[in-house]
Write a structure and sequence with these properties.
The structure holds two protein chains of two kinds. By secondary structure, chain A is an all-beta fold. Chain A has one helix spanning 20-24; strands at residues 52-60, 71-75, 96-100, 107-113, 118-119, 125-126, 130-135, 143-149, 173-178, 181-183, 186-187, 197-198. In chain A, the strands form two sheets. In chain A, strands 1, 2, 3, 4, 7, 8, 9, 10 and 11 form a nine-stranded mixed sheet that branches. Chain A is globular. Chain B is mostly beta strands. Chain B has one domain: Sandwich (Protocatechuate 3,4-Dioxygenase, subunit A). In chain B, the strands form three sheets. Chain B has a five-stranded mixed sheet, with no helix packed on it. In chain B, strands 2, 5, 11 and 12 form a four-stranded mixed sheet that branches. A two-stranded antiparallel sheet of chain B has the order 6-7. Chain B is globular. The two termini of chain B are 27 Å apart. Classes of the chains: A mainly beta, B mainly beta. The interface between A and B is large, with 81 and 84 residues. Strand 12 of chain A pairs parallel with strand 1 of chain B. Chain A: This is Protocatechuate 3,4-dioxygenase alpha subunit. Chain A: It holds the Pfam family Dioxygenase_C.
Chain lengths: 199, 242
C-alpha cells in the first residue's frame, strides 16, 4: 500500500439563501441594533488617503431582472497598493466591505478608495482592481469576480490577459460616469455575461 | 503580514453545480460560461482580519442574544461546536464565523419571510464568534425547524444552520449550511442535492455529540469546517535563471 495522504477535503458550499442578510447585515434585514458593530459596513475610515469613489450597479439574472436579494463583499488594497495588515498599509483602509442590492430597486453602491496597483506572483504588476464575491439565493457557490477601471491602463494586467475572448474583458471594467463615480453592472448569465474566476 | 503562499486550487467536483433545474432559482442565476482559472494573487491570498474585540459577550449565544439576556428563546437547546481546519489539517485560529437560522418553528426574523409559523419574541437567529488559537468555536442555540419554500409543489428545507467563514484570505471565503444527523428531509432537499457527491454532502451533516452535551441543559452537535489550504513554497521562490 502507498502512503496515505493526510489532506482534508474543503467543506462544500451551499447557497446563502434568501435570508443571508439576517446573519451578515442585520440592520438591512430589519433587525437593527443586533450587534454593537456590524462587519464590513465601510472599507474606509475618515482620513483614508487617495481618491474616494462610488461604484454603483446591479446584478442581473439570465432574464435581465436585477436581483433584489444579492449580497456582495469586496476586498481591495489601499491607494498605494497595500492590503490591510501589510507593512506600511494605510491604517484608515480596512479594504473589506459588505453591501447589498437594494430590496426595491436592486441597485448597490460601494463607497471606497480607488486602489493602487498590486504585484502578482513573480512581480508582474496588476492593474488597479477590487476583488468581488457575490452570494445570493440560487447561487450555490459564491462567485468571484473583479472590478477594474476604464480610466486606468489595463493593457498589461496578467489576469485580464487570461481571457481569450477579448470582448469579455469589458465585463470587468467599471465605466466612469461622473466625478469619482463609476458604473459596474454584473450579468450572471447570457448576453454580456460577466467573467467569473476560479483563483 | 508575510505572504502566506498560493492557495491550493479549489476542487470544484466536491462543490455544488451552479446550474440545477431542481433548485429552480439557480436556473437563471448560474453562469453559462466556464470560470477563468489561474493561480491566486495577493487579492485572494490576503483577507480581512477581525479582532476578538468585535465580539460581544452574547454574540455566540442565540438563546439569549436577541433579548440581551432578559429571556430565553423557545426550542431544543443545542450546542453547535467544532474546529476550523485547512486542507493541510492545520487549525485556522482567530477567524470569524457567522451563523443565521430560523427559529424552532422554521420562521426567520427577516422582513421578507411571511411563513405562518410565528416569530419567537425572544429569538433573533443570528450569531458570530471568532475561533480560538486551536481553531475551535462554539455556539449555543435552539434547533431550527424545517420550513416550506416555493420551489417545486411541496418542498421543505431540512433543519439547517447557515454558516459563513472567512479564513485568513479572501479566496477561502465560504458560505455553507449545517444539517442535523438523522433528518429525513436531507434526502428530499433539492438544495442539498446540488452537491452531486453523496460523500461530500455527508460532510455537511453534523453528528449528535453526546459527550459534549451537558446533562439537563443542552445536546451538542459537532460541525468541523475545512477551508482551502496553501501550497508549500519551498522550491517556488527561485531566482531568475536557476
Amino acid at each position: 500500500m502507498v502512503q496515505k495522504l493526510e489532506a482534508l477535503v474543503e467543506t462544500p458550499s451551499q447557497t446563502a439563501g434568501p435570508y443571508v442578510h439576517i446573519g451578515l447585515m442585520p440592520t438591512y434585514a430589519g433587525n437593527p441594533g443586533y450587534y454593537d458593530q456590524e462587519v464590513g459596513t465601510s472599507p474606509i475610515a475618515a482620513g483614508a488617503k487617495g481618491e474616494i469613489i462610488e461604484i454603483s450597479g446591479e446584478v442581473f439574472d439570465g432574464t435581465g431582472w436585477a436581483l433584489r436579494d444579492a449580497l456582495l463583499e469586496s476586498w481591495q488594497a489601499d491607494a498605494a497598493g497595500k492590503f490591510a495588515g501589510q507593512e506600511g498599509a494605510d491604517p484608515a483602509v480596512s479594504g473589506h466591505c459588505r453591501f447589498a442590492a437594494d430590496a426595491v430597486s436592486g441597485e448597490f453602491t460601494l463607497r471606497t478608495v480607488k486602489p493602487g496597483a498590486v504585484p502578482a506572483r513573480g512581480g508582474k504588476m496588476q492593474a488597479p482592481h477590487i476583488c468581488l464575491w457575490i452570494v445570493a439565493r440560487g447561487i450555490n457557490i459564491g462567485l468571484q469576480t473583479r472590478i477594474y477601471f476604464d480610466d486606468e491602463d489595463n493593457s498589461a494586467d496578467p489576469v485580464l490577459a487570461r481571457i481569450e475572448q477579448k470582448p469579455r474583458i469589458d465585463t470587468l471594467i467599471a465605466r466612469k460616469v461622473g466625478d469619482g463615480k463609476y458604473r459596474f453592472d454584473i450579468r450572471l448569465q447570457g448576453d454580456g455575461e460577466t467573467v467569473f474566476f476560479d483563483m | 503580514m508575510t505572504n502566506l503562499g498560493p492557495l491550493i486550487p479549489r476542487n470544484r467536483e466536491i462543490h455544488p453545480v451552479a446550474y440545477d433545474p431542481d433548485y429552480k432559482t439557480s436556473v437563471a442565476r448560474s453562469p453559462r460560461l466556464p470560470l477563468i482559472s489561474m493561480e491566486s494573487t495577493p487579492g485572494e491570498e490576503t483577507g480581512p482580519r477581525f479582532g476578538h474585540g468585535l465580539i460581544g459577550p452574547l454574540d455566540n449565544n442565540l438563546i439569549l442574544n436577541w433579548t440581551g439576556g432578559k429571556a430565553p428563546a423557545v426550542g431544543e437547546r443545542v450546542l453547535m461546536h467544532g474546529r476550523v481546519l485547512d486542507e493541510n489539517a492545520r487549525p485556522v485560529p482567530n477567524t470569524l464565523i457567522e451563523i443565521w437560522q430560523a427559529n424552532a418553528g422554521g420562521r426567520y426574523r427577516h422582513k421578507k419571510d411571511g411563513y405562518l409559523a410565528p416569530l419567537d419574541p425572544n429569538f433573533g437567529g443570528c450569531g458570530r464568534t471568532i475561533t480560538d488559537e486551536n481553531g475551535y468555536y462554539e455556539f449555543l442555540t435552539v434547533r431550527p425547524g424545517a420550513y416550506p419554500w416555493p420551489n417545486r409543489g411541496n418542498d421543505w428545507r431540512p433543519m439547517h444552520i447557515h454558516v459563513s467563514i472567512f479564513g485568513n484570505s479572501f479566496g477561502q471565503r465560504l458560505i455553507s449550511q449545517m444539517y442535523f444527523e438523522g433528518d429525513p428531509l436531507i434526502d428530499r432537499c433539492p438544495i442539498a442535492a446540488t452537491i452531486k457527491d453523496r460523500g461530500q454532502l455527508e460532510s455537511l451533516v453534523a453528528p449528535l455529540d453526546i459527550n459534549r452535551s451537558r446533562p439537563l441543559d443542552f445536546l451538542a452537535y459537532k460541525f468541523d469546517i475545512v477551508l482551502r489550504g496553501r501550497r508549500q513554497t519551498m522550491f517556488e521562490n527561485k531566482l531568475e535563471g536557476m
